[in-house]
Each structure stands twice: as C-alpha cells, then as structure tokens.
Write a structure and sequence with these properties.
Helix content is about 50%, strand content about 15%. The protein contains five helices and two strands. The protein has a two-stranded antiparallel ribbon. α2 packs antiparallel against α3. The longest helix has 23 residues. The two termini are about 20 Å apart.
C-alpha cells in the first residue's frame, strides 16, 4: 500500500523529534521548539516538507558552528530511520545525498558538511556503512518497539 506523503513526512519528522528530545534528555542539547509541515500543491499531486526546529539558547545563534557532531548526526539520520521503518522502503530511498527528491537529502548533506567541518575523511568510510547497515539493522530488529507509535 502506497503511503500518503504527509504520513511519510510525519514519521520522518518524528524521528528527528525523538532523536533531539533524547539528546536533550541525555546531554542537555537539542530541545525541540516546533515542527513545521509545509504543503506543496502540484498539478497532479500534493507533497509535504517538514522541519524540526530546535530551541536556540539565549547565548547562541542558528548560524553558530557545529560543536556536537555525534548528537547532530543522530538528530539528522533518525528522520530517515523512522521513515524507512514506517514505509518498509530501503534507507537509501530516504538518506541519499545524490537525490534531491529524497526526504533526507538535506539531512545527508548536513551530515557530510559536519564531517567536512571536523576534517573526518578516513573514519567516514567506516561511519556510513555503520549508519546505513549495522546500526540501522539493529534498529529495524527492534520494530516491535515502534508498533507503539
């Protein structure tokens, strides 16, 4: 059964929300301020785009350099994790830096930008397979935990 685009975006943003709230609970970073859904109407279809917006501390700005890369990677990739689990589609259909139409395109670009900012090149060859296969495989095996959602 084909999933409605709003449902897909909802679960994608839910993944971001949960990762950010966990980061906030565990590390004191990334509390969510709001979640936005934007509707785009085309001639033959309706598409949605979502955005999970974190609270910006009083002494910071949205333009500050990234400091906590591991937490940011979790926040970014969990959108695609939840989307892939919900839709049953491969993670690559969401988390794809080469496909501007994938819901996780900008998330993948932001992760690549963070890795570049921290000069992480060699480790990147280990990180991506770990995120896409090993960790995601473990997460999918916990699918019964997602049934509650």
């Amino acid at each position: 059964m084909k999933k409605d685009d709003l449902e897909i975006v909802f679960f994608h943003e839910l993944g971001h929300f949960i990762a950010q709230e966990l980061n906030y609970e565990i590390y004191g970073l990334g509390k969510v301020e709001s979640i936005k859904f934007v509707k785009y109407e085309f001639a033959n279809e309706i598409r949605y785009q979502g955005q999970t917006i974190p609270v910006v501390p009083a002494n910071a700005s949205r333009n500050d350099k990234l400091i906590n890369l591991p937490e940011k990677i979790a926040e970014l990739i969990y959108g695609c994790y939840f989307q892939a689990i919900f839709t049953g589609e491969p993670l690559k259909s969401c988390f794809d830096i080469y496909n501007e139409n994938s819901k996780g395109y900008y998330d993948a670009k932001d992760i690549a930008g963070g890795l570049y900012q921290f000069n992480i090149e060699k480790e990147r060859k280990i990180l991506y397979p770990y995120l896409r296969e090993e960790y995601f495989g473990k997460l999918k095996n916990k699918k019964t935990d997602f049934t509650l959602l």
